[in-house]
Amino acid sequence: MALDKAPSWQPWLQQEFEQPYMQTLKRFLQSEKAAHKVIFPHSSDWFHALEATPLDRVKVVIIGQDPYHQPGQAHGLCFSVKPGVRIPPSLVNIYKELQSDLGIEPVNHGYLEHWAQQGVLLLNAVLTVEQSNANAHQGKGWEQFTDRVIELVNARCEHVVFMLWGSYAQKKGARIDQNKHRVLKAPHPSPLSAHRGFLGCRHFSQANQWLLEQGREPIDWQLPSSPAA
Q1: What EC number(s) does its UniProt record assign (predicted)?
Q2: Residue-wise pLDDT tens digits, 126-170
């Protein structure tokens, strides 16, 4: 495990790989592979959120919980799926909110790379999962690593919007300095809870308004119609 493809994060996070908790996590993942368990996403995508969004470009942070656990879905960005994969229900609701908030017509794919490249850190709390076994890798060490990522953004970045959807994300972001950053909270966009306040939260327009007020470029939330664009 290394951050070779995420040079902006490397000076601050590379030492985490020497910590006992990460050594324990590494041994766990190796034992799972030795037992022929299928792990998602592919190991080359475990740190894709950090690779796609350099530390010095972070404008928005969206925190997810666990990677998708079916074949072909997860590629290291929370809520995002690879091109050609059916759009998951939570992302369908995110698109609904984008449409009501900003008038953005939903696209027919769930590939959110365009957001990540503009400075939206799409960070799952846990970076791996076993196929067809949701939450299988919770409590193995990833949470401590991603807490460190959030601490780093909190300390070293200026004027970042944190979108905390659901109680899990809100606990994860509990220590964010709200004098420096904007924290937006809403229920999770899953079909079980979206109607309790995620739909209608207007987080996307609020984020852009706040970025503009801080002299930062807003996010273009309109995804390309073709995921390869």
Answers
A1: 3.2.2.27
A2: 999 999 999 999 999 999 999 999 999 999 999 999 999 999 999
pLDDT digit string, tens, across residues 78-122: 999 999 999 999 999 999 999 999 999 999 999 999 999 999 999
Question: Does a structural domain hold residue 95?
Answer: yes
Exposed (0-12), middle (13-18) or buried (19+): which is 10, by Cβ within 10 Å? middle
Does residue 41 have a cis bond before it (omega within 30 degrees)? yes
- Active site (annotated) includes residue 56: no
C-beta of residue 140 within 8 angstroms of C-beta of residue 22: no
Q: Give domain status of residue 37, yes or no.
A: yes
Considering 4, 66, 101, 177, which one is annotated as catalytic?
Answer: 66
Burial environment of residue 22 by CB neighbours within 10 A (0 to 12, 13 to 18, 19 or more): middle
